[in-house]
Amino acid sequence: MKHLLSAADLDKDQVLELLATAEQMHELQDREVKKLPTLRGRTLVNLFFEDSTRTRSSFELAGKWLSADVVNVSAKGSSVSKGESLRDTAQTVAAMGIDGLVIRHPASGAPHQVAQWVDASVVNAGDGTHEHPTQALLDAYTMRRQIGDLAGAHVVIVGDLTHSRVVRSNLILLQTLGARVTLVAPPTLMPSGVQSWSDTDGFATTYDFDEVLPTADVVMMLRVQKERMSGGFFPTPREYTVGYGLTRDRLQRMAKDAVICHPGPMNRGLEITADAADSARSLILGQVSSGVAVRMSVLYHLLGGANV
Amino acid sequence: MSDRTYLIKGADLLGTGRTDLLLEDGRIAAVGKLGDAAQAAMIEADGLVALPGLVDLHTHLREPGREDAETISSGSAAAAAGGFTAVLAMANTQPVTDTAEAAERILDLGRAAALVDVQPIGAVTKSLAGEELAELGLMARSRANVRVFSDDGRCVHDARIMRRALEYVKAFGGVISQHAQEPQLAGGSACCHEGELSGRLGLPGWPGVAEEVIVARDVMLARHTGSRVHVAHVSTAGSVEVVRWAKSQGIAVTAEVTPHHLLLTTDLLSGYDPVFKVNPPLRPQEDVDALRAALADGTIDAVATDHAPHARHDKEHAFAEAAFGMLGLEQCLQVVTTTMVQTGRMTWADVAAALSTRPARIAGLAGHGRPLAVDEPANLVLIDPSATGTIDADASQSLSRNNPWHGRTLQGRVHSTFLRGRATLLDGEVQK
Q1: What is the rounded distance in angstroms from the CA atom of residue B60 to the CA atom of residue B121?
Q2: Where does carbamoyl phosphate bind (chain A) (predicted)?
Q3: Residue B11 sits in which domain range?
Q4: Do B199 and A193 touch (CB under 8 A)?
Q5: Among A196, A211, B193, B386, which residue's beta carbon has the most beta carbons within 10 A?
Q6: What domains lie within chain A, and their CATH numbers?
Q7: What is the ipTM of this complex?
Q8: Statement: the pTM of the whole predicted model exceeds 0.90
């Protein structure tokens, strides 16, 4: 495996191996000295075309704890307006002789394109409304720690599916692990073509959260971006919460051992109430702490390779 | 060169049978079984099909403003290489072709390049802003004799402006060529066909209905105003249905389809290669099938290239940020041969109608799209339909390399092109 661009790059064995390594990495976080010498002499660049403090620091820590040299490059703002093409930007950074390129870009597909232009390993740290494969890995990692094997588990993903990169990676990865996935959203926030897509890939969709809530083993709530609220996707935040929010009432109707995920950042009161976010069922803080371990595992497998 | 006479021996005239053609003084001097003429350059046309010179209703030549992507000279060479004898140059240059002076400048640059007749299209609205009518009448009265008006690249979305434009051009027999894209349904970020693939790829989509509602509105406006509307680059089965209905009602609507919409489908976008980013976007196979059927039955009148050269640095961005458009002039006839002739959907006479006669008539170009008969202007193309070739983007007359056909094998080869008796392409070589 040279790049991690999509959750679809991973088969089940590879996912399980990445998650197993992540577990070992996770144990390190309790040690006083957290560093491993694994990637000593390797150089990693976090090339971020949009801000994301959490994802960037998570990759930065992951690289540093593996002893790689880590450089953060912020390339915010449209490269079109700057007159430099994406190819120029990527090749300029790559020309510095780096081993890994972690890319966050507001446009879908940008890491795929870059991977064709540079020799370094490319990790997709979130591209537009497309994918965020390391987020899906850490979500799966967190779920498995809580509820065990995901084969046959019912995962319900609720929220702004059209504009979410998390949902696409999660859908793919969860299905790779054998989970049964249901997507829930109002029709205006369903991804385009979801009918034929779900037929092909074998997942379910519904506009009715309450119908599927009692059978869910995992309820994953996705953030609803503020800018969508005035875009005519739904009438008011209040109406959204009544239809699609994880309210106190819905919290009580969840199955006995069901858990709650949210890739963050949360809009408390809109898609999730504080009661739900802070309940014993919530894996939300666990998701954050797993992030570094999962990214260490990814970097280890991409950059460390067999010669570690 | 221009004084040279050519004797074309044994060309298959529109696929109806072999004959000789003598080109002299810019005209077809003789047709039939001809003896050798001492002064004439002989072209052995065994196996070649002769068609009237092709006419492209939709070409972007980029000059003035983006001479790094294409010039009128380089685009003219690409046109000659593709078998064209006339191209209509779209108005979205910098500055926009929205005055008589701008139109005459393009006409003159085309004449200076002297490889193809470059007929300027005038903007419908000033600066393509969609707000006020450009000087349509002055462009029509100018030396450039503009008859086709288009804001292509943008839709004339304001129904009142569209109505006025349609009414106004009746005074001089003009036609509005509409880029049908309802901007609220397919806004600035829309960069590909809206469907399952755009959902999977996370790309903002452009639904077919955004085209269809404008086509439907415009045919009703054409009926209301008694004017002519031309639908540029039809891309969906729904638009075809609307055009078919409008024609059945006697509404003066014509339509064009691009070579890429006849062959390429939206699934090419799965690798995010911006070469395949075009507006309107590549659609699913069902639309391609409907477009082929509509071209074959005449619902779609013409094939037009939408040749849209772009410099590499405007294409090598993230997909959503890259420029729209792909090259088309040089491979157009091959694509039509591959998709329409080889498959038995069209005869060579049909090809002549769709790529020459009808587009010339829509554009009001009197000297083009004429029969290959004695005393007619010697505008013609010879094509070798049996040749096949793998397309190489680097072997292009265009200054740009955004060639979606690169690496594909297409049927047919453009052998020679004659513009008023002068060879602009001879055995595959552009005659600059």
Answers
A1: 10
A2: 54-55, 104, 132, 135, 264-265
A3: 6-49+376-430
A4: yes
A5: B193
A6: 7-130+290-307 (3.40.50.1370), 133-287 (3.40.50.1370)
A7: 0.93
A8: yes
